[in-house]
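CBS domain-containing protein
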Amino acid sequence: MGIKSFMGPRAKTVSKKEYDAPILVSDYMTQNLVTFTTDQSILEVMEQFTKHNISGGPVLDDNGFLVGIISEADCMKQISESRYFNQPILDKSVEKFMTKEVETIPHDISIFDAAGIFDRHNRRRLPVMRDGLLVGQISRKDIVVAALKLNGQNWK
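Predicted structure tokens:
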């Protein structure tokens, strides 16, 4: 004798095209970035951090290509050195203190994959790339905000 199912008809599965919630990094990234150049002074960078209330930003070359990232932690090196040698903060260039090995993230991955990348790497922000060009930046806070928005709209 066969087994009967008393569950009734099953609901239609939602295809990816029917799911309209914004879940990509490009939906939540910051596009209007404060950027820096390699020849800017570290003092000028610190002033920009306080002016714009940011803690870091991408460093671009003369052609607009990403060559590094500078953060408050990088500036701490300069502050520490100036204190150690009892000298004022000098006009040393960003190039000396920036992180040159920059981890980036593609624009078209989900915020869930981005959360995994943030979990594996100890970074506060990641530059977002499209076809080798910088198109934005996403932070850990952006991912948290995105998850809260999705939770309120779509998760049940």
